[in-house]
Design a protein that fits this description.
Low-confidence stretches of chain B: 336-352
Shape of chain B: globular
Oligomer: heterodimer
Order of helices and strands of chain A: HHHHEEEHHHHEHHHH
Strand order of the largest sheet of chain A: 1-4
Strand content of chain B: under 5%
Number of strands of chain B: 0
Mean pLDDT of chain B: 86
Radius of gyration of chain A: 19 Å
Number of helices of chain A: 12
Low-confidence stretches of chain A: 285-291
Largest sheet of chain B: none
Largest sheet of chain A: 2 strands, antiparallel
Radius of gyration of chain B: 20 Å
Shape of chain A: globular
CATH class of chain A: Mainly Alpha
Number of strands of chain A: 4
């Protein structure tokens, strides 16, 4: 029982950390609070639906390709011309991008939710350390965990990662020191696309369906996690997302049924309180770099 | 030209423009009247939003929540008591009286404004402390909280089922009167001492603070006032449509109003009014285009109208981030040098 709960909590935490990382990365590098992030996820899930009759790895691969393509396109068409704009203007622009992508999804194949039959092996349950655990939870933990480790390696050990972190720290200074904006910004969008693509594979498998408005919830999770963890540091954001996931799993298990419906209200009230009391986030240091 | 008449030019011109909408709506058929009334209600809302955003330079994504408060208050107060007994059969004990109360239409409008003002008062301390992107996220979070409560507290709010059976008390004339009133109030605040101090804070937060202006307090005042006006819009909306759903007060409505205020120019009251009317017309045209009525061809897939609206907004943000009007106001005669120069000095809003 405890083991089951732990695995599902860790799974949800890892998934939320993944979602949060995408939001935080874009915010750090560009000052962009990207509400279109959910629609990048949608693009991945959309690919899963299109290739639902192919073997699963084709669908998952195409999800990555679609998500990265949509992320890059949105950068090229919408955010590139607004590069020097006010963060609030950028946020409004991302609203517009989000609505545009959602409308395109509605216009083509998703006027209503479509089911994706999950791979049969995902719904099986196996015995781990004496506990009965669903394969889906294990896959979630594995996939998200590997991705997080990969991102940590990329950000910490590679030249690109160092440039990205420098850009997140102080974009203008980094540019003066030779970090090329035209390299790091698209690179950030590619990474976010990959994160969203993997997130969409996991989400589609967990939900078993795809719909035009499926991006909203994960995007909000990413925003809340990023604010809670502190948007200036990626580590803080990932940790914030992880905690958010773990707490959500906890609330869903232990909150009385009447109150579960109000989970979001509690969550967003907490978000407002954090914004007022600790704008740098719960987990980060003293440095404030919000807006 | 005396200073006074220069000052009054803008609100009178704006009220004149809304009067044109009234005239067109009255002269046209029932469809046109409906569109005109809804666009006048949008004017009320966007003027309310602009009372906060225009003066403080802080964008809010949460004002639709005040509209929802106004609409739900009107629903509780005007739905006939027998019908309410059926609609709210499961009210918790402490709220039983909700099924019994009933007021006249005008009292309901006033109480709706008051309830929205209370919601504004409760949230004002938060708004006073935040600016820029933080404020954007916090106001959005406020909208999400209100939406979640309205959507999930099924016994009291009917959740995702529609509110039905409100008597129709909003006509195109009342909508016009409300729009004119909102414009007058919005302009009065904008030119008031508090409004001018808040605009100083918008131009340069720290300079204003250093000059002894409590920017936070004026933000809170503007927030409550704008909440009240948006509550009025919600009340009119509810009693015009006679039935509404919680989903009318969520992201798509927020988006539509944001398009209006950004397109017109969110720093200027004229921009708010022109944006509200212009985008209402645009939305109607897009709707007809999507239905195929405009081209005479077959219907386009649903979502086309939203896609085009989003593209219009993006184009505006890229080409003219401060909208059609920028920070200018409509004037006929270019008198009042002081006013004009003040209006052109705007460059960036607070928080950057």
């Amino acid at each position: 029982m405890i083991m089951e709960f732990l695995i599902s909590a860790v799974g949800l935490g890892a998934l939320y950390a993944l979602l949060t990382l995408g939001v935080a990365l874009m915010f750090g590098v560009l000052g962009l609070m990207n509400f279109a992030y959910g629609e990048i996820l949608l693009a991945g899930a959309f690919a899963m639906y299109l290739f639902r009759n192919e073997p699963w790895f084709v669908g998952a691969g195409m999800a990555l390709v679609f998500a990265v393509a949509v992320a890059l396109l949105s950068e090229r068409l919408a955010f590139h011309p607004l590069r020097d704009a006010d963060p609030v203007i950028l946020m409004i622009a991302s609203f517009a991008v989000s609505l545009a992508l959602q409308s395109i999804a509605r216009m083509t194949v998703l006027p209503r939710a479509r089911g994706i039959a999950p791979e049969p092996f995902l719904s099986r349950r196996i015995e781990v350390l004496g506990a009965d655990v669903s394969v889906l939870d294990l896959v979630t933990v594995g996939l998200c965990g590997v991705t997080l480790v990969a991102v940590a390696w990329l950000m910490g050990r590679t030249s690109l990662g160092i440039q990205l972190r420098a850009a997140a720290e102080d974009f203008r200074m980094a540019a003066l020191l030779g970090v090329r904006p035209n390299l790091v910004i698209p690179a950030a969008f590619v990474i976010v696309g990959v994160l969203a693509g993997i997130g969409s594979v996991v989400l589609a498998a967990r939900q078993g369906s795809v719909s035009a408005d499926m991006g909203l919830q994960p995007m909000l999770i990413g925003v809340v996690g990023a604010v809670l963890g502190g948007m200036s540091s990626l580590k803080g954001a990932a940790l914030g997302g992880f905690l958010l996931g773990a707490v959500t799993a906890l609330l869903e298990t232990f909150l009385p049924t009447d109150l579960i419906a109000f989970r979001d209200a509690f969550l967003f009230t907490a978000l407002i309180v954090v914004l007022v009391v600790r704008p740098q986030g719960l987990l980060s240091g003293a440095k404030v770099r919000v807006s | 030209m005396t200073v006074l008449s220069t000052r009054l030019q803008t609100p009178l011109l704006l009220i004149g423009i809304t009067a044109v909408v009234l005239a067109v709506g009255t002269a046209g058929g029932p469809t046109l009247e409906r569109v005109a009334t809804l666009s006048l209600i949008s004017v009320v809302f966007v003027v309310g939003l602009s009372t906060f955003s225009g003066n403080s330079g802080v964008m809010s994504f949460g004002h639709v929540a005040f509209m929802a408060v106004g609409a739900y208050t009107t629903a509780y107060l005007t739905i006939p008591v027998p019908l309410k007994g059926v609609l709210f059969a499961n009210l918790p004990e402490s709220l039983r009286w909700l099924a019994e109360v009933h007021t006249s239409a005008s009292a309901a409008v006033l109480l709706s404004c008051a309830m929205a003002a209370v919601a504004g008062l409760v949230t004002a301390p938060v708004v006073a402390r935040l600016s820029g992107l933080q404020s954007g996220i916090a106001t959005l979070a406020f909208l999400l909280v209100v939406y979640n409560v309205l959507n999930s507290w099924t016994d009291v709010t009917r959740g995702s089922s529609s509110m039905i059976g409100l008597p129709r008390s909003t006509t195109i004339v009342t909508a016009f009167v409300a729009a004119a009133l909102a414009i007058a109030v919005g302009w009065a605040y904008r030119t008031s001492r508090s409004g001018l101090q808040l605009q100083a804070g918008r131009e340069d937060y720290w300079a204003a603070q250093a000059a002894g202006i409590a920017v936070g307090r004026h933000r809170a005042i503007a927030w409550v006032l704008s909440a009240t006006i948006c509550g009025l819009a919600g009340s009119l909306y509810a009693s015009f449509l006679t039935t509404f759903n919680v989903n009318a007060f969520f992201l798509s409505a927020t988006f539509a109003f944001v398009v209006m205020i950004v397109l017109g120019g969110y720093l200027s009251l004229s921009g708010a009014v022109l944006g509200a009317i212009g985008v209402s017309v645009l939305q109607e045209l897009l709707r007809r285009l999507q239905d195929g009525g405009l081209t005479g061809g077959s219907a386009l897939p649903p979502g086309t109208a939203n896609l085009l609206l989003a593209l219009v907004l993006l184009l505006t943000l890229v080409k003219a981030p401060y909208g059609v009007m920028g920070a200018r106001e409509l004037v006929l005669v270019r008198g009042g040098r002081r006013l004009r120069r003040g209006a052109q000095a705007v460059r960036t809003p607070a928080g950057s």
